[in-house]
Design goal:
heterodimer; A: 4% helix; B: 11 strands
């Protein structure tokens, strides 16, 4: 079983839509949780960290359920500029806190 | 603030050649990492370092070597390049380990 699994995607949505991505992780010792965004042929960049209490940053809301080992990302009022691949990322003390990446979910927002 | 800088951005190697991918960061981060990303796949950890003089293998270390003589630099060495090493390589650094990692712009390597 892969350490981090995400929705297979791709997601094609119209502008203004709400879209949700889900992710599960297998290592119960995972300590930190993130959503990264990766544009085509670019490096991953942090979108937001995910906290147990849930957190929101503008149109983006992240949730973490440690008991179910489940992470989610909700994007409201999608913009064309949200088109990218969204990477679910966790880390543990193992391997110097190296990040474990899901394969990513591709989002295409259309006019 | 340059962040994490990788060179070169692109490279074509012939089978059996060797090369070094350079990575330097100016954020005084202790933790540094090398990942590779193949098409449609997640990033896989090659090697990591938790501080100067300390390195260790990640998930896919075969065919690679690293060194960490300074806090700033973490070069990745490919010996005897093989077509299976065709990939995009990302270097990253992190200040406290369990916090955000910053990535370089990547090196696109093709082995023919």
């Amino acid at each position: 079983r892969k350490e981090v699994e995400q929705d297979p995607g791709p997601f094609n949505v119209p502008e203004g839509a709400t879209v949700a991505f889900n992710c599960t992780y297998s290592n119960s010792a995972s300590q930190s949780f993130f959503w990264y965004r990766q544009d085509c042929r670019k490096e991953p960049k942090l979108l937001m960290s995910v906290y147990s209490s849930g957190n929101e940053d503008g149109r983006f809301t992240a949730q973490l359920n440690r008991a179910s080992q489940y992470i989610s990302l909700l994007i409201r009022d999608s913009k064309l500029s949200d088109s990218a691949t969204y990477l679910c990322v966790v880390n543990t003390l193992n391997s110097g806190y190296a990040l474990n990446f899901g394969k990513g979910t591709s989002l295409l927002v259309t006019p | 603030n340059a962040g994490v800088t990788q060179t070169p951005k692109f490279r074509i190697l012939k089978i059996g050649q060797s090369m070094t991918l350079q990575c330097t960061q100016d954020m005084n981060h202790n933790y540094m990492y090398w990942y590779r990303q193949d098409p449609g796949m997640g990033l896989k950890l090659i090697y990591y370092s938790v501080g100067a003089g300390i390195t260790d293998k990640g998930e896919v270390p075969n065919g690679y070597n690293v060194s960490r003589s300074t806090t700033e630099d973490f070069p990745l060495r490919l010996e005897l390049a093989a077509p299976s090493q065709t990939s995009v390589y990302f270097c990253a650094s992190s200040g406290q380990g369990n916090t955000e990692a910053f990535f370089g712009q990547g090196t696109r390597l093709t082995v023919v």
